[in-house]
Amino acid sequence: MSESKVVKAVPKMPQSWRQETKAHKFCPGCGHGMILKALGEVVDELGIQDRLVFVCDIGCSLLAWDLFNADGVQTHHGRATPVATGLKRANPDLICIAYMGDGGGYAIGAQHLVNACVRNERITVLLANNTNYAMTGGQMAPTSLIGQKTETSPYGRDLAKQGSPMKGPEMVAAITGPGAYSARATVAKYKQMKSYIKKAVLNQMEGRGFSFVECLSACPTNWKTNAKQTWAFLEEQMGAEFPVGEKKGGDCNE
Amino acid sequence: MSKTVKIAIAGEGGQGVQAIAKILTEAAYGEGKEVLYIPNFGVEQRGGVSVAFVQISPEKISALKFQKADTVIALSARAVRRTMQYVDENSIFIYDSSIEGVAEEVAELQNTAKKVLSIPALQIVSEELHPRVFNMLIMGAVIGATKVVSLDGAYAALEHNLGAKFQKDPSLRDMNRNAIQRGYDLIEL
Amino acid sequence: MKKPIEKETRAYMTGNEVVAWAALAAQADIMYGYPITPQNEIMHYWTRLAPQFEREFLQTEDEASAGFTTLGGVMAGRRSFTGTSGPGHMIMQEAMCMAEMMRLPLVSIIQQRGGPSTATVIYSQQESTLACYGGNGEGFRVVYSTCNHQELFDYTIKAFNTAWKHFFPVFVLGDGYQAKMREPVTLYDPEARGVQMIPTKPLLGLPGTPGVDRDPAQLRNTYNTEEELFAVVEDLRKAYEEIVPQVAEYQTYDCDDCEYLIIAHGVVTRTAQEAVKNLRAKGIKAGHFRPVTLRPLAADALLPIACRAKKILVAESALGQVKRMITDGIYGCTTPIETLYKPGEGIYTEEIEAKVLAMAKGE
Is B14 touching C (CB cutoff 8 A)? Predict the structure, then answer.
């Protein structure tokens, strides 16, 4: 083969990423890589690599446990929020980011999320919403859309029987006190997502209150979608159900 | 056998049973004795019979629970029924004479107990003292029956518990001390 | 920082108050907790005392959170503890199990209440299995079972040192009686008695920039292959077995020539020893062996005493939870074992005495 004249640009990785363990573990098309890249760039820009503690929930979010050149800990399903809370309470100099999926945040760890909000814990929760339990094989999540077929809602999520999708950032905005930050981003709008994550982390660094970003994320493996369908589901269906934007703090009510 | 004095005090919530036990055991502790006090507690924190289990001894106290008490004091009909189980031939059973509907139980106790004493505690505090000092009169009676602490020791513990109130209103001190003394004098064994 | 206890002080207080003072004396930095009877007053006293000594408290939303926030506290390098009971203890086992896997120096004070389920808020010895072997683990824990207020004070202090020395979760197993009853206790500053508090260290948030000055500290509890996990658990087993001789504690009472051996732990110790005294007065050669640590069990010490005895009586306020550990620990000993079980209820001296008398008569 002749040498190509076109040198493909290698995507630049965040400095804070650990080169040996970069986000190769996620499925093709998965949104986690983009969320974590945005977070990595934020960590770089804010220069907080030496103060960061990255607390991983169970599920696909756990795969990020060694992604950063930062201290971190694996927890149990739903328990990333209390571990981050305990760390921050014991050492407020740390910057504690709990990373989880929609199941960990809105189902098994919902009481932790709710009460961390109520107490306005000075931590940051970063939550990937891909409308299903991906690691366990595509079961229905609190965020599954009405009519969405999953392994445990094979005929589609039924509003009457299974309720409606959980609106996390709106809840967080409603129950947190002054100084909190809450936003919904999407991997489809990278720059905006990164700006929200940055604001959330800054909110913690300034000790203002709880900070929360839900990122709409793609899961082609469990959605069983091709690239085009994936993008359509993310942007059209999820976008219609889950309005992207800041819900509290940031530019929306300052 | 054991030199440990075992006391069970029982009444309705609000009669001050646990306060009696607390002050009495503090008095004994203040006099250098070994003490153990277990408050009765359960899910029925409100509305149930309140029982205090007290042990006072010159030696280290071993078992936490006892089957039979040396002295049992019951301040209500339900308390009489509840505490009969702690009575045997070595027990002194004391109850308030105003308690109604326990004739059968008292008759039975007279067969089992060493001595059964009915004391007009409620009547005395209502007519001569103040209803608030009912429990201190009972504590005086317990001391009279057991001699586990001196009256001075009891006064010191009283001071420790209610000293702040006494400072505001010194007449309360005399009223409480009088009640303890009256209760003590009621017991003739 | 000023010391909470300047000089030895004799005091008369409840067991929960004793625990709060012990944690202060042990230089505990932070308590995380959730209300449940009969543990509540540990928090009540701690929240009153802690601010005076620049210590912290967080009331969480449930016991899962209390357990995991405490783990966060120890990872941050702070001497952290929690307390719970009964149904709360069940929920908290999830965090305790993570501590077992990740070797986190978690300290928990358990004031046992009646079970199964909500049961009573009073007393039991029904949380031994849970404390020793709770969760989906292998029991890599240290469990102290106390019998009076002095021990509640001593072992709460010791629990922090055992945890930070050996990096296994440590339990102080009290009960509702001990929690709520009042008896005298001597409070002291550990250092004044030559007990040095083992320094804590952060497990996360270490000095230097990860990837530049050092490798990142990334704590794991998830493994991909059976072989990988097996190796991890083997390491845990070896580490745990190494500490057993240092950690296992027991107490003997008239065991040298004893023919009738009573085995009892926790507050039943007091009843058993009084029964031994009374039985000896009646000419019965009784003795008492007390496991102070339920886990690890001092089986090596117990075995010869158990083998020498004519008969063994295990007395506990549970349906054989510790008895199962005993029979496992003294496997091979042929001395017949009888039992006195009163799940969720206190045991009277007279009951043990009567049982041993009957055993001596061959009934």
Answer: no
